[in-house]
């Protein structure tokens, strides 16, 4: 059972990634404990805390057409200091990592 749907990659979420805080959409039935165990099982990471936010459905307009943005559920997952979620590196971090590897190869 996959409780974690997708990551949320916004500017605000990117600022938290430096501190080990990751934002993702989750299943409606997911709990804090189930998210913690899934992160441990899938990625072998230690979770410090999990905060869950329920977002209500919203009425929106797109090109003058009315619509509804579906209700969502987000989780803010704080990892243990020094741990990172694989595949969540920012372009700036990738460049720094590549430059460090180049320096190591020269030496």
Provide a descriptive summary of the structure in words.
- The chain is α+β, with helices and mostly antiparallel strands and 107 residues long.
- The strands form 2 sheets. Strands 1-2-6-3 form a 4-stranded antiparallel sheet, with helices on both faces. It has a two-stranded antiparallel ribbon with strand order 4-5.
- It has a single domain, classed as 2-Layer Sandwich (Alpha-Beta Plaits).
- The model has no long low-confidence stretch (mean pLDDT 89).
- The longest helix has 16 residues, at 91-106.
- It is 33% helix and 35% strand.
Detail the topology: elements first, then pairings.
Layout lengths: L3 E4 L3 H7 L3 E6 L5 H12 L3 E9 L2 E5 L2 E5 L2 E8 L11 H16 L1
Antiparallel strand pairs: 1-2, 2-6, 3-6, 4-5
Keywords:
alpha+beta, Alpha-Beta Plaits, 107 residues, two-stranded antiparallel sheet, 4-stranded antiparallel β-sheet
Classified in CATH, the superfamily is: RRM (RNA recognition motif) domain
Can you write the helix and strand succession as a string?
EHEHEEEEH
Strand content: 25-35%
- What number is the mean pLDDT? 89
CATH class reads Alpha Beta
Structure summarized in a few sentences:
This protein has 107 residues and is an alpha+beta fold. It has three helices and six strands.
């Amino acid at each position: 059972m996959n409780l974690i749907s997708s990551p949320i990659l916004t500017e605000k979420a990117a600022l938290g990634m430096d501190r080990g805080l990751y934002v993702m959409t989750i299943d409606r039935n997911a709990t804090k404990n189930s998210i913690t165990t899934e992160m441990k099982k899938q990625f072998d990471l230690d979770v410090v805390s999990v905060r869950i936010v329920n977002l209500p459905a919203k009425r929106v307009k797109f090109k003058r057409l009315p619509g509804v943005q579906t209700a969502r559920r987000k989780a803010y997952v704080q990892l243990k200091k020094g741990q990172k979620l694989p595949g969540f590196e920012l372009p700036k971090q990738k460049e720094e990592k590549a430059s460090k590897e180049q320096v190591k190869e020269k030496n």
